[in-house]
Amino acid sequence: MYEEIRENLQDIDGLIVGSPVYYAGPNGSLCAILDRVFYSCSDLLKYKPAASVAVCRRGGASSTFDRYTPVDEQRTNEEHDIIFDESKAFSKQFTPVLNGDISVNYRINKRKLSHEFSLKMLNVGIRTGMHFYQYNEKTNKIKKEEGTGIIPNVSYKLYF
Ligand SMILES: Cc1cc2nc3c(=O)[nH]c(=O)nc-3n(C[C@H](O)[C@H](O)[C@H](O)COP(=O)(O)O)c2cc1C
């Protein structure tokens, strides 16, 4: 299967990866083949757009995406730039955090048409559990930044 994927990667413009959700994570066989492909075909994937799709029955879809590749600290320190350890691609899971959304809706019901105004504040727990890395050239250290931020979402819906 690896040889076949490698062959097909030669002519692709982009990549879409899909997986069923198995115990709040992607399918294990898919992770195994992706590890193998990322390890040795990164030249064929570089700068190409990619998207991923997860299908679940009940829950665990977002944690399926909440995976990251660890930093290769030795190479990062040698090259003074963040280098990921692609031999362990997506092997780590972000820390689960308690988070929530607040939503205020105002709906005007009419016989034929209803209007709904809504203000949502997503991510009110502020911490997302996600993080990213930056290389600080002045201190020559890897800096881990926590992902934060409340996301406001304003919408207007029409119901016929
Ligand atoms: C081993 C296993 C674990 C699963 N875990 C989850 C889960 O954590 N959450 C969920 O919503 N669905 C779960 N499902 C349901 C799958 O997501 C669902 O079957 C899948 O999206 C459809 O793909 P399939 O045709 O390969 O089963 C699980 C299914 C299997 C077989």
TrEMBL record:
Task: Please state every residue range assigned to the domain named NADPH-dependent FMN reductase-like.
Answer: 3-64
Matching entries from InterPro entries are given as: Flavoprotein-like_sf (IPR029039), FMN_Rdtase-like_dom (IPR005025)
What is the top-level taxon of the source organism? Bacteria
Entries under SUPFAM superfamilies matching the protein: Flavoproteins (SSF52218)
| Pfam families found in the cross-reference section | FMN_red
Q: What is this protein called?
A: NAD(P)H-dependent oxidoreductase
Q: Which organism is it from?
A: Parabacteroides segnis
